[in-house]
Amino acid sequence: MSNESPYALTAEDLRALRTATGVIFQYHGKESKIRAVLDRHAFDGAPVIFTAAEQRTFLNADRVAGGREREIPATVAMMGYEYGGERGWRLAENPDASAFHYIQTAQYSNTWQTIARLLRAGDAIHIVWTADNNNGYVTDAGLHVDRVEIAVARAKQNLYFHIGTSVTAANSARMIKRQGV
Q1: Distance separating alpha carbons of residues 91 and 93, to the nearest angstrom
Q2: Among 15, 59, 83, 157, which residue's beta carbon has the most beta carbons within 10 A?
Q3: What's the rounded Cα separation, in Å, for the pair 102 and 174?
Q4: pLDDT at 118 (0 to 100)
Q5: How far apart are CA 146 and CA 100, in angstroms?
Q6: SS in 3 state form for the chain?
Q7: What are phi and psi of 127, to 5 degrees?
């Protein structure tokens, strides 16, 4: 997995990942993390009130969006392919790379809910980003296939889960950017 020191998930982390309305996987500025987001929108403009338990679980208040979030550290690996897979690159060679993936409706995603229920306290999450995992058709169309997966380290086994794939042009919507933001 990684030489970095892993962070062991806590019961509060698991509660946040299982009840979040959104889950963000992010690598930016040499920092890798998962952000469990609790978003509430009052359509009538009334103030949104979070329970004491929600405030304990989602520690950080988002002053812009009015929600709350919990940051969970994760180790990272990032790699990509060039020239039709003839050559590859790694994060160490591209220290300014960044990556972002958002599961906006995590509470409605059966896949995410299954993954979150399989996680246990003590597990360590390693985020694996792969850029330009293209085939010839995608490359000929001028597009890029980026994906994010997690490897979960548990005492006697490792579990691997696909989180998301993005097919985009080389623009600001791209999941993985080699040269940063």
Answers
A1: 5
A2: 15
A3: 12
A4: 97
A5: 10
A6: CCCCCCCECCHHHHHHHHHCCEEEEEEECCEEEEEEEECCCCCCCCCCCCCHHHHHHCCEECCCCCCEEEEEECEEEEEEEEHHHCEEEEHHHCCCCEEEEEECCHHHCHHHHHHHHHCCCCCEEEEEEEECCCCHHHHHCCCEEEEEEEEEEECCEEEEEEEEEEEECCCCCCCEECCCC
A7: -90, 130
Distance CA 156, CA 65 (A): 40
pLDDT tens digits, 51-104: 899 999 998 887 656 789 999 999 999 999 876 656 788 999 988 999 999 999
Rg (CA), the chain: 17
User: For residues 140 and 142, what is the distance between their CA atoms, to the nearest angstrom?
Assistant: 5
Which residues touch 34 (CB under 8 Å, ≥6 apart)?
17, 23, 24, 25, 26, 71, 72, 74, 125, 127
Query: Cα torsion at 79, 146, 39, 122 (round to 10°)?
Result: -40
How many CB atoms within 10 Å of residue 150?
19
Q: Which amino acid is at 103?
A: I
The amino acid that residue 124 corresponds to is: A
Neighbouring-strand partners of residue 150: 127, 161
The parts of the chain modelled with pLDDT lower than 50 are none
Amino acid at 123: D
> Letter for the amino acid at 153?
A
